[in-house]
Amino acid sequence: MDATLSTTTTQDSLLFLLPSAATLLSPLLTVLLVAVSLLWLFPGGPAWAFVSRSRATPPGAPGLVTALAGPAAHRALASLSRSLPGGAALSAFSVGLTRLVVASQPDTARELLASAAFADRPVKDAARGLLFHRAMGFAPSGDYWRALRRISSAYLFSPRSVAAAGPRRAAIGERMLRDLLSGAAGREVVMRRVLHAASLDHVMATVFGARYDAASPEGAELEEMVKEGYDLLGMFNWGDHLPLLRWLDLQGVRRRCRSLVGRVNVFVARIIEEHRHKKDDAIGEPAAAGDFVDVLLGLDGEEKLSDSDMIAVLWHGSISYEMRTARMR
Question: Which domains, and CATH codes, for the chain?
């Protein structure tokens, strides 16, 4: 009897509390909906709503911009900019909490590219996961970035280096011609594969000083790692724009980056160690022209890089070459 009375009393107490809880929750939901609506309808989207009103902001469309989902996002964004009052030269929009601008005129784009405010490239979650924040592509502007740029320019793009790589480029070109001529006998030739193989061959010879046959286990592993890194960098990751989703890693970007970096560390560290042994064995002999690994190992003083920095720079160089070639394809 006492138990039944106690249960009834508890139920009555809960029923008594429900109306007050609903009454308290309703204003909170109302305030939340109003705040979200105001952020949603703010010109340029929610990310621009937090910019200080003392600073001038470019015109922008309210709400969510879906232009990026189309096959020709640049044309859709240019049309959107022209439709806004005063937005023909510069307009704003948001992706999550990230502020973006669209420059639709050459003079405006040139001014942005030359501005110190845009000197640092935003570090994507995938780029940080792949150690690229320690390489030239995503490193912040400063002494370290300038040192990497000077090293790359002096070795990879100097007239002497370009001329020295001439025979290698000619050999790669001859292999491409043989692949194309084989199609004249009735076999189909996929240009994408021909260009990809030539690009990877040239990159590996320039950066690592070796030629990897795609048919070998080592070459297949390297090609798979380069493709995975390219896919991760090119993927649109909502975690870059919404911190909660970055923590949850719903798209698996962080998990894939950790797995790939482990494989890259083993692969590139082995190449660096092999170059160190060759350098030690060649003491006292005339210095021969080396590859980019030899250049990095030969740095002294303030320019000397740690092994982890060398892995990041070499890996970034491989992916960058592949991305440039993919755009040509």
Answer: 46-118 (no CATH), 127-328 (1.10.630.10)
